[in-house]
Amino acid sequence: MTSNSAAGWALIAAVVIGFVASLITPGGLLVEPTDTAAFSEAAGVLGNNSELAQFATFALVVSIVLYWFGLSSLRRAFSGDSVMDTVSRFALNIFLLGYVILIVELSFRHILTHVLAHGVGSSASEEKAMAVTLFAAAAGLHIAFLYVSSIGSTVFAYGLARRSASMDIFQLASWGLALTGLAIFIVLMVAEHMPDVDLHGVAVASNLMLLFASLCIVVIAVGIMRGRREFVGDDAAA
Q: Are 14 and 59 contacting, i.e. CB atoms less than 8 angstroms apart?
């Protein structure tokens, strides 16, 4: 297996595992759907389905590591000394930093699930309050992840699109990823400056855009496996 194939398959596996894990996460689409803006209720659902929540959390961490491995290969596309390559490399690093924040968020989820399922020797009310606090902190980390990843993906995906020689599905995927990052950033700005906005609606909208971004990444993964120059650079191009 070549390095291009390894990176491409890692991204495809990351998308599949992440999608399935998101579906089975308690409080999500399939298992006791819950308003994520209602912190106490959402945390309670995780505690009531602790084993499934822990499995989904672990699966998401695996997905993130695969994303990290696959997307790191895109550094080869920005190996030049031009300003655009330099900025794109920096943006890709910022984007990958977002995944670090996401793993920290999932660690908070793991702890709050443990607190609700097994307790920490405190009263039930204290443990519930602790879990809600952890859930709120995790929600804040998720917003940080969205900020960082949206800015990073907008810039480095734009750099990928500029490298494409012609308009095809691979360039469209790059543009799609860039525009999705920009759209998520705009949604976050609206949510931050409009106090009356429906936070659950914002969460649903951002999740749908992340799903679309994942589909764009699948197309980019295929391009990496094919050794497309705009994704793997001149040295590793087929």
A: no
Q: Parse the chain into domains and list their residue ranges.
A: 3-226
Helix (H, G, I), strand (E, B) or coil at 66: helix
State yes or no: pLDDT of 119 exceeds 60. yes
pLDDT of residue 152: 94
Is the pLDDT assigned to residue 231 strictly greater than 80? Answer: yes
Tell me which long-range contacts 61-66 makes (C-beta under 8 A, separation of at least 24).
61/103, 61/106, 62/17, 63/13, 63/14, 63/15, 63/17, 63/18, 63/21, 64/14, 64/18, 64/99, 64/102, 64/103, 64/106, 66/10, 66/11, 66/13, 66/14, 66/17
Identity of the residue numbered 75:
R
Contact of 76 with 237, CB cutoff 8 Å: no
Q: Which amino acid is at 78?
A: F
Neighbours of 105 (CB within 10 A): 21
Any idea what the Cα angle at residue 205 is, between residues 201 and 207, rounded to 5°? 115
Cβ(129)–Cβ(163) under 8 Å? no
Query: What CA–CA distance (Å, rounded) separates 27 from 46?
Result: 7
> pLDDT tens for residues 125-145?
787 888 888 888 988 898 899
Which residue's structure tokens are 């996401």?
Answer: 102
Q: Taking 90 as the threshold, does the pLDDT of residue 95 lie above it?
A: yes
User: How far is C-alpha 56 from the chain's CA centre?
Assistant: 14
